[in-house]
Amino acid sequence: MATSSSCVVISDEEQGYDLDLFCIPKHYSSDLERVYIPHGLIQDRTERLAREIMNEMGGHHIVALCVLKGGYKFFADLLDYIKALNRNSDRSIPMTVDFIRLKSYCNDQSTGEIKVIGGDDLSTLTGKNVLIVEDIIDTGKTMKTLLELLKQYNPKMVKVASLLVKRTPRSVGYRPDFVGFEVPDKFVVGYALDYNEYFRDLNHICVISDTGKEKYKA
Ligand code: IMP
Questions:
Q1: I want to staple 176 with a disulfide (CB 3.0 to 4.6 A). Which of 45, 160, 161, 169 is the partner?
Q2: Where are the alpha helices (H) located in the chain, listed in sequence order?
Q3: How far is residue 42's CA from residue 191's CA, in Å, rounded to a whole number?
Q4: At 188, is the pLDDT very low, low, confident or very high (cuts 50, 70, 90)?
């Protein structure tokens, strides 16, 4: 695992960890190949991202916009770390939260069509500093579409924090402002990332097995 100044880079050769070294729900024991990013490492990286976000955006009221459902764990933990910084610093800012629900995947493939299927009225973002919090950027199409959509509501500033970015030839070239980990082009689950709604109830980020793909196929 290498580090760069902008994120932790997980190489294509990274083997991850044997499932038996960690606590995995029994109902998923044959559905996963390896533990890829253990929960503790996600937490430690998120703590650091919180500091970077506050350094860049901490001058003004932030609206943190969670992209559901995959972003909810990262969102909750990131906000906890930002709140801890606010509690323990002489300089602190109010933060409000908002939610949006998007859907673009069936099985492990992007449908290429992004649907907004829930969330508040986005006009509340007009004139605000918005921090979009997402689980993973794969092709980048979802985020590009969301950014286009938000533009219509004239926010003052928009920054994007994504826990993961996939290295993929299918990328449209979009790169978020804050990235936790850059990962190889594999389908990953856990820590709220799903495969057809399964595996959100798993703490670690893991690589799904062929058995898992078959079992939970849509
Ligand atoms: P994009 O539009 O191709 O960037 O896809 C982004 C969305 O696809 C994410 O918000 C996820 O919901 C989903 N996604 C992409 N790759 C994965 C993965 O490896 N595991 C789980 N969900 C994924």
A1: 160
A2: 39-57, 72-87, 141-151, 210-215
A3: 9
A4: very high
Q: Which of 73, 142, 168 to mutate to test the pocket of ligand 1 (most atoms within 8 A of CB)?
A: 142
C-alpha distance from residue 63 to each of 92, 165, 207 (Å): 14, 22, 32
Q: How many separate domains does the chain show?
A: 1
pLDDT confidence bin for 123, thresholds 50/70/90: confident
Show the domain range for 161: 2-215
Which residues partner with 208 through β-bridges? 32
Helix (H, G, I), strand (E, B) or coil at 154: coil
Spatial strand order in the sheet of 188-189: 32-37, 205-208, 188-189
**CATH number assigned to the domain comprising residue 155:** 3.40.50.2020
What's the gap in Å between 137 CA and the centre of ligand 1? 6
CA distance 217 to 107: 6
Give the per-residue pLDDT at 72.
92
